[in-house]
Protein 1
Amino acid sequence: MLQRILVAVVGVPFLLAVLVAAPAWATFALLCGLCIIGAHEMMSAVCGTKKARRWWGLPSTTAVFVLTTVFFSDRRFDGSPICGIFPFFAAALLVLTFVVLVTEHGRGEDSLTLQDLCAILLSGTAIPLALSCLLRLRLMEYGGGLVLIPLVSAFCSDTMALFTGMALGKHKLAPLVSPKKTVEGALGGLAGGMIGMVLFRIIFFLCTEVALNIPWCVLLGLIGAAMGQLGDLSFSAVKREFGIKDYGRLLPGHGGVLDRFDSVIFAAPVLWLIIRSIQLWGN
């Protein structure tokens, strides 16, 4: 517990500085780093360390091009010839992935299997696309605040679920996937997401003098918390499947990137889709 707290004390201010205070390119750079590390963690978990060392560069590079495509889709770069290049690079790498699968087939125990292919596509495409929604939020008006919504809803849910489960937990939620999680903790997590978003609205108003719609904030907190819990359980199921405790040891007390951001990976795309479709502030 002490390690978790110490990492949070250092990590939260750093995360806020990059996402809120720094330019948008800092968010892009941070997400690239997270995706590269996350690709290695997923490949190591699913494919083993030997295959991960050999093929890790493929999903990592694909992830960077996916994020680069999103970053240069911003209106600031409209008309720039560089904007249309990166989607072709990302598509080419996806084609290369299947070429590698075919050429490596039948070459002994080190050949790529369908399971390995799924790990490459998940870590090189699906996870970066999900996390790129944080970048999409950062590029919006008041993006320095909006980018925090998936983090607030997911992390507040995680924290409240932990303490509620420790205090009141009796009924197991998904014992075969995550034995320590309880129904009471999950309900507390949903409440935590909503409370976190109400507090976020207050701070957002104090910083920007822009009043966010209260019902929408509560709903975003609820949905973000629910999706975050689904993400946590989903990534836990992968760990159970391959017999590992944590995806990595980058963050003492928290595990790896995928251990800490599993909830955000699920929450970010859903919340981005909602935010871009509604009027979150104003008349």
Protein 2
Amino acid sequence: MSLSLPVVKPSDITPYPNGWYVVAFSHQLRPGDVQPLKAFGRELVLFRDTDGVVHMADGHCPHFGAHLGHGGRVEGNCIRCPFHGWQFAAESGECVHIPNGDRPPKLARLRKWDVTEKCNMVLVWYHDRGAAPTWEVDQLPEFDEPGWSDWSTDEWVVKAKLQDLAENDADVAHSPAMHSLTNELPRASEPEIDGAIFSWNLKITPSLQQFGLPASLKVPSGVAISVTTRRYGLAFAWIRATLPLVSSLRYRAQTIACTLPIDEDSVYLRLAHRTRRTPFRPFTKQMLKFYHQQFHQTVDEDIPVWENKIYLDRPAASRSDAGVLRFRKWARQFYSNPVPEKRASGS
């Protein structure tokens, strides 16, 4: 008796969705710095010219293939190849100087990428068909408010697709099943969708001990953590959390969550956290430490699932999965070959 196996078709979800990606934080790249970068299955070079402008280009020199990120250097507003010293203009990518006096060949040009710098982040535009940017990342709400702690960062390399990480925030049903932050199903608002921006609010009944607060401190009935997530495309999210405590005291925190695909099988996940300063510096430091630890624990709990799950175009979804299905419908715009409506909706 032969066993008939179902035919499994590859998903239309590709490893590199179109959109803006955070490739570095601004303080990591000083004028004159040159850094190699691997992303989107390619070798790249990231550098800041002497005017302070950040650039990204394909990493290998078109002359004889040396990697500009390994030994290359900034000279004026050019990047110099470490192999033969050819110089390429930062703005155009065109070769403008060869040390032996030869005339630069027409093919001697670096492929430049669209780069913008905003809110202390360096963002790069990716489109699998080479299209120019069709939307921008706006100023993050409350980002420039004074009175916040320094940033605390965390990072992982995860063997997963970016889509699985991106839709995790919209999957409220998995939180009480997997994580210790709450024992109750979070209450989610209807999402606000504005083109490439997807925003929603969560109300979470917390376990205060997960935030490093004493067990004797009780949360008044009905009080919950308010979490606002504002996602710009699939690779970047701005998360703000507020928890009323006693009197006028509120616990406030902010998180930058950014994901960068390294290749078809792995992504680089980076988080940056800060908390609102209190009059007591040790208390602020302690709150940030525990907030960071809570996020780290949550990601560590999610990673085994991300690395071993498959993406189902037609999941057997239940009522509480409505948020994920709405998110998937919105996410189709970031793929050049989008998932058909009937498949993404779970019907």
Protein 3
Amino acid sequence: MPIRLHVNIDHVATLRQARGTQYPDPVFAAQLCEQAGADGITLHLREDRRHIVDRDVERMRDAITTLMNLECAATDEMVDIAVRLRPDVVTLVPERREERTTEGGLDAASHRAHLGPRIARLVDAGIKVSLFVAADEAQVDAAVALGARQVEFHTGPYAHARAPVGRDVERTLIAQASRAAKARGLEVAAGHGLTRSNVVGVASIPEIEELNIGHAIIADAVLMGLPRAVRAMRAAIRRGVRVRRAKP
């Protein structure tokens, strides 16, 4: 399949942390996702450790057999952890304590001085760097200048648009930014708020190579089980791929 599906398992840890138990285990959940066909596992180590904790990251590095994508803020603490554990990919994201989840893209264009040395450390350690940014050409240019290999476009505005016309506008912005990123030599990913219902529109964009999806898969898993939820999302993505292939 031309689009990689990376499953974000943060909300397995959210359920565990709600009661302070040892279960459900996000590492075991990640292994189930791999067995069901996930191409990689994404996990977000937040400053406040509200779901994923350091021990999860350490165990995940040893346990999974596909690809490990560590989401984190661009802080010295997080860069130190990444350099020590060597995930395959580090995706730098914005982070605010008061938010429920990541609410917007990283403003790489305005924070080059802060991001530059931290990205350089990750690159020097042999870690692929991705920036979670808005679908905006200025952010694409900043990612290139900073030495990132990939951009992940924030699909929240698309996913949460209330009317079809609004969703079409947001999809057009993602498509335009994806073409710009691909033309500049970047790999193109997307994620946030994607479900089996709305992922088709994003998966049909030819330049998109990877989707990071978590909450919707874990929510589906409550009703249908985790392996089936992963397979159902892959089927939805395939519908989007068929749309792109059908276009002249």
